[in-house]
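User: Predict the structure for this protein chain, please.
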Amino acid sequence: MENLSIPTLRVLYKHYVNWVSAHPERTTDLEASIKWISYFLAGRINNSTLLSELIYSMSNFMMLFNDQIILSTAKPNSVTVDNKGKKKIFSSENIKRFITTVDYVEVFVEISAKKLWGTKGRWIIIVLLQTVK
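Assistant: Here is the predicted structure, written as structure tokens:
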């Protein structure tokens, strides 16, 4: 099997961006299908709770990623900058994206923490995540 080089990955990414931009309705169908897979897996196999939460979280990330692609193609050059022309790291969009990301992985991380560290570790993680949010 051929190794995937950085230029090959860039070409694949460019094709994916073009496809998502051209077919947003199909993208939505794909996201929903992946989300339904997580529902069907629940209770079917060992550790299915963890696996279904992982797939559910990944479908949410895919949705967030695809939404960012669609927004960037709808309005290119939409980078938030301050008065001096520097990119703003703590813009409202970036903060919203960060909180959304934490929200998407919250249940997956809680389940993982309980399996690794028990109930006490799970509650420590819950407190940390809620504090971050």
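Residues 34 and 59 are 6 Å apart (CA to CA).
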